[in-house]
Amino acid sequence: MARFLTPEWVEELNAALAAVHLPDPAPDAGLAMADGRVVVVQEVRGTPDGDLRLVLTIDAGTVHLGLDSSAGTSDGTDPSPTVTIALAYPDAVALAQGRLTPAEALNAGRIRVRGDLAALAASQQVLNDARSVAGGKLPPTTY
């Protein structure tokens, strides 16, 4: 069982999501998802392994995660984030465990968001769809 936000966790999650192909965004997804590609970067401070960036790419019906302790993606290119979220590790854990919603975190000032808020909302819907499609295939996680 992989620990949250480690390379092993990202690998296990990507393996579970590999078989997931999402339908095109609904017409009400707005301009943020018009081309079907959104890059959400989560800058997480204070993890057990130091500060890091989790790069979520939604493109052509697929979802992929990358983990980076510096900048860019694993292939060395800049992911050109559509939206960037900055938060502390305890808040990232609370969000992942469902003990904190994105709206609660934003309203309480526990996260900072830069970029296209509509893209953030659209990506949340895509992630919810991915969880539904993946069903019970998502790997267990330790924190």
Protein traits:
five-stranded mixed sheet; alpha/beta; 143 residues; 4 helices; single chain; 7 strands; 31% helix; Nonspecific Lipid-transfer Protein, Chain A; two-stranded parallel ribbon
Structural commentary:
This protein has 143 residues and is of the alpha/beta class. It is globular, with a radius of gyration of 14 Å. The longest helix is centred in the last third of the chain and has 18 residues. It has 4 helices and 7 strands, in the order βαββββααβαβ. About 5% of the residues have low confidence. The strands form 2 sheets. It has a 5-stranded mixed sheet. The protein has a two-stranded parallel ribbon with strand order 1-7. It has a single domain, classed as 2-Layer Sandwich (Nonspecific Lipid-transfer Protein, Chain A), CATH 3.30.1050.10. 31% of the residues lie in helices and 30% in strands.
- What is the count of helical runs? 4
Highest CATH level, the class: Alpha Beta
Average predicted local confidence, pLDDT: 81
Q: Count of DSSP E strands? A: 7
**CATH fold naming:** Nonspecific Lipid-transfer Protein, Chain A
Give the terminus-to-terminus CA distance.
Answer: 10 Å
Number of domains: 1
Order of strands across the biggest sheet?
4-3-2-5-6
Nutshell version of this structure?
This protein is an alpha/beta fold and 143 residues long. The protein is 31% helix and 30% strand.
